[in-house]
Structures are given as structure tokens and as C-alpha cells.
Amino acid sequence: MYVKEVTVPSRPSTDVEQSARRRILAATFVVLARDGRRKLQLSDVAAEAKVSRPTLYRYFGSKDGLLEAFGLYEQDNFDSGIAAAMTGLTGAERLDAALRFIVDFQSTYSLGSLADTEPEHVLHQMKRVLPIMHDRIARIIPGEDSDIAAAAVVRIAVCHYMIASGSPGQFLAELRHAAGLGASRRRLRRTLAG
User: Fold this and answer.
1) Tens digits of pLDDT across the chain (194 residues)
2) Measuring CA to CA, which residue among 9, 101, 102 is closest to residue 64?
3) Whose CA is closest to 168, among 93, 105, 84?
4) Are residues 102 and 163 part of one domain?
5) In angstroms, rounded to a whole number, what is the distance separating the alpha carbons of residues 68 and 168?
6) In a domain, 95, yes or no
């Protein structure tokens, strides 16, 4: 959940440039996961991406430029993944697909290990992430309490990101419950209606 809204220097225009840029950003993930933000060296990212340091500087200009672009890359990965997960679905199935995607994304593609090595940085990023995530989740939760439910979903997701505990099944059950898809809420609705 290393999501950040920023302005990035010029975007590459050719497929070759896009491919090199994506390789560098994917390598940034690997190096960040291994070394953390403080120890991130552009030479390590270049070596991981199999590009020269001048190539990396041509695309990103500096370490800060690379990290800003990486934030957008993470946000794009999340946004395109959640959109793909929900494609063609409506109602509760759409919401459930989004929640399953959140669990899968955090289980397979997460920099949660940074919380152990650089908690200040992660907390700073969380301040940026919470409103973005809340907005995206609130749009897909139906009902007048969608803002409250979205806030709970996002906070549960952040807790699981920061403190990796429990199984993916437990994580998903918590998200479903917060979003109003939990079995106990369905029973309660039936009881109130009947």
C-alpha cells in the first residue's frame, strides 16, 4: 500500500521506453522490499532492472523522482487490479470481488515489511493513502452508511498491512463484515425483515 499522489516528470512515449520504465519501477519494488527506503541505492535499482544508472536518471532524475513515480506505479497497480477484479460484476458480487482483491494484493504484492524497518515513513505514507483508499472503497459500498463502512474497511486493511497477522481468510471475513457482507449482518437483516 505504498500509494502516493504526485506529479511525475515527463512520461515516456514509446513502447521501449514504457518497458524500461516499468522494469525500473518493478525493480524498485524488489530493492525497497529487500533494503528499505533509507538504504535504497539507485545503482541497486539499475542493476536489478538491468539498465544503466544514466538510463534510470534519464527517466526519473533522482531518488526522490523515482520514489514519486513508484508511488504512482503502486497506485496504478492497485487501481487497475481492483477494476479488473470488479469487471462485469454488480452489487454484492462487485463489492466482494473488490474486497478479495485487497486481500490478494496485500498478500502477494505488498511492502508491509517496510513497517518493521521504517515505521515513520510508512505512517507518513498511510496519511496519504487513507483518503485515496477511502474514496475508492466508498464508491462501491451501497447505502447511506457507505462512508462509515469504507472507513472501517480501509482501517482494517491498514492494520493488516502494518501488522501482518491472521490468515487471508480471516482478513477477508473482517473486510466483508465491515462492508456489510458478513454472515451475521445477513442474519440480522432477515430477522428484522421477518
Assistant:
1) 544 444 444 455 577 788 899 999 999 989 988 888 889 999 999 999 999 999 999 999 999 899 889 888 888 888 899 999 999 999 999 999 999 999 998 887 666 667 777 777 777 777 877 888 899 899 999 989 999 999 999 999 988 887 777 799 999 999 999 999 976 444 444 434 44
2) 9
3) 105
4) yes
5) 29
6) yes
Alpha carbon distances (Å) from 132 to 19, 51, 79, 107, 138: 27, 32, 11, 20, 10
Q: Which region holds residue 142: left if phi is over 0, alpha if psi is between -120 and 50, else beta? A: beta
User: Rounded to whole angstroms, what are the CA distances from 43 to 55, 56, 57, 148, 174?
Assistant: 11, 9, 10, 44, 41
> What is the domain extent for residue 114?
88-194
Question: If you ran DSSP here, which 8-state letter would residue 12 be given?
Answer: -
